[in-house]
Specification:
Elements lengths: L1 E8 L2 H12 L6 E7 L14 E8 H8 L12 H26 L3 E9 L2 E9 L2 H4 L4 H16 L6 E6 L2 H23 L3 E5 L2 H11 L5 E6 L6 E6 L4
Parallel strand pairs: 5-6
Antiparallel strand pairs: 1-3, 2-3, 4-5, 7-9, 8-9
Helix pairs in contact: 3-5, 6-7
Length: 238
């Protein structure tokens, strides 16, 4: 029995893999026709076209060629390959969402994305990125939150998106660590607690993690959003 499917993907290879997976056959057993090569599009990937392929598989011919019986198990690939595809789909969805948002507010620049394990890193560089950052990074945090929702909507496994625009997040992290170092110095000189400036939840987590291994001090948060602060306190002597 002959069966044909038409599939799309970011690349021709991705579309072919999706078709072969549905048909349950190998590339050698199928007849593949490329309908659309696809294109990367312009700035930030806008206007990108997916690749489209038509794949035909004749199960009867495959059985004759292999000498296999109808009771033989069909191999669809290991689970790890499917997990990788899921994360790739989440990465594409996240990158496309960021591109649309930034284009909508007039941001001009270049975007790079890659993944390590279950984390997707998206970095946007260029001029006039301020509108996507906002006061104390509030706009960037909002975009990051929505991007994480979009990515996880396209992935069965939990993924995390780390978004940086104009190098703000990396620069801000260094500034925060510098402020934390100063707070520790003041605590050690005075022997009293030091209340740091108000920060976002993500920035407070940086301080807590950074000072976790520092001897002689402990940290906790006080106050109500958006004025919640990290408090650095002398560690009680045992």
């Amino acid at each position: 029995m002959e069966k044909t499917v038409i599939k799309t993907g970011v690349t021709v290879d991705e579309a072919i893999e999706a078709a072969l997976s549905e048909l349950g056959c190998t590339k050698e057993q199928a007849v593949i026709e490329v309908i659309e090569e696809g294109s990367e599009g312009g700035f930030l990937g806008l206007g990108r076209k997916d690749a489209e392929v038509k794949v035909t598989f004749n199960a009867d011919e495959a059985v004759e060629d292999s000498g296999a019986s109808e009771s033989d198990d069909t191999y669809y690939g290991d689970d790890e390959s499917f997990e990788g595809d899921a994360v790739s789909e989440a990465e594409d969805a996240a990158a496309n969402f960021v591109a649309e948002v930034l284009s909508g507010i007039g941001i001009h620049g270049n975007m790079d994305s890659y993944r390590e394990d279950d984390t997707i890193y998206i970095s946007v560089t260029g001029s006039d990125c301020g509108a996507a950052i906002g006061r104390h990074g509030e706009t960037l945090e909002a975009i990051s939150y929505m991007t994480n929702l979009i990515a996880n909507k396209h992935s069965e496994q939990r993924v995390h998106v780390s978004l940086d625009v104009g190098g703000y997040r990396k620069h801000r992290e260094q500034v925060i660590k510098g402020l934390a170092d100063k707070a520790v110095s003041r605590v050690r000189r005075s022997g009293r607690k030091v209340v740091m400036e108000a920060m976002s939840p993500a920035e407070r987590r940086i301080v807590h993690a950074y000072l976790q291994e520092v001897r002689g001090v402990t940290t906790h948060s006080e106050g109500v959003e958006p004025n919640r602060c990290v408090v650095v306190t002398p560690e009680e002597k045992k």
